[in-house]
Amino acid sequence: MDAISPPIPLRVGATDIYWLGGGDFRLDGGTMFGPAPKVLWQKHFPAAADNTIELVNDPLLIRTAELNILVDSGLGNKLTPEQQTVLAATQWRLISQLALL
């Protein structure tokens, strides 16, 4: 596994926004893009042999002087082994990155 480096914030006024590493996963490209022809979306999102595309599961941390707000994309890290296999989910790096802040 690659070394985890501290996330660099985007500062907006007095608020810091951190893009954290939630890992990657794969979904069927046809499902993601619906009726759009594959020839159009494959230029930007190359499909694997099984027609899946790589997506990110990256949460945001929004920090103000008063609050820490974690915005999760919804996939989280509570997948069953079967879900991890189906989604080809990679390791969730969120806890390691939060420890560096």
List the helices and strands and how they pair.
Elements: E1 10-12, E2 15-19, E3 24-28, H1 29-33, H2 38-41, E4 52-56, E5 60-63, E6 68-71, H3 81-87, H4 94-100
Please, how many helices?
A: 4
How many E strands?
6
Into which percentage range does the β-strand content fall?
Answer: 25-35%
Largest sheet: 4 strands, antiparallel
Total number of distinct structural domains:
1
Radius of gyration: 16 Å
Following the backbone from N to C, one meets helices and strands in this order, namely EEEHHEEEHH
Determine the N-to-C terminus distance: 20 Å
Indicate the multimeric state: single chain
State the helical fraction. 10-25%
Shape: globular
In terms of per-residue confidence, which ranges show pLDDT below 50 for 5 or more consecutive residues?
none
Describe the protein:
By secondary structure, the protein is of the alpha+beta class. The protein has one domain (10-100). Helices cover 23% and strands 26% of the residues. It contains 4 helices and 6 strands, in the order βββααβββαα. The protein has helices at 29-33, 38-41, 81-87, 94-100, and strands spanning 10-12, 15-19, 24-28, 52-56, 60-63, 68-71. The strands form 2 sheets. A 4-stranded antiparallel sheet has the order 1-2-5-6, with no helix packed on it. It has a two-stranded antiparallel ribbon with strand order 3-4. The model has no long low-confidence stretch (mean pLDDT 87).
